[in-house]
Amino acid sequence: MSFSTIMHLFLLSSLLFAFANAANFDVVNNCPFTVWAAASPGGGRRLDRGQTWNFNVNPGTAGARIWARTNCNFDGSGRGSCQTGDCGGVLECRGYGQPPNTLAEYALNQFNNMDFFDISLVDGFNVPMDFSPTGGGCRGIRCAADINGQCPGDLRAPGGCNNPCTVYKTDQYCCTGSASNNCPPTDKSRFFKDRCPDAYSYPKDDQTSTFTCPGGTNYRVVFCP
Question: What CATH number has the domain spanning 16-223?
Fold first, then answer.
């Protein structure tokens, strides 16, 4: 057997192993309106009410997120814009979205081969969300409050509710600079935490907002659960 054949078989087996151990994600639009789902990695997809987008994510992926974009218009080439969650004016996202947008964040197969996942409102809120494992053994999380309807006036944005860091950009709200080590919650971050206790309300909200599942778990993200 030639060296090139051996390398080809090795690469093929590596790809098959990665695919077999990839996490499967179902992204479901349960909102009474169309959303343009976005994922990094993953791209983007228009989802009318009741539609599902399914994709796989490679083991070891970190810094990943899924979110909904609203009030979008795209042309036949996939270029356009969205009122919330826009990712550079393209349907197939290659980066993160613009606030305000509710985020499902995750990192797969990390410390002790555990997945870490959360719902984050650090970039604000645009649609309610549920982020849950599809099997047993670990709990899911949800942020289903009417945050847009109750949003304080200074945080209101077209189609959503901004996090105070986005609006004020201060160390106090963003946990940067002099507040990077000691950054307690504020009255404005408590607005989000009181309504969605499982979700990140500000950048240092780790203890009550990060959840784990064993590596190899599959997940379901539902908009407007």
Answer: 2.60.110.10
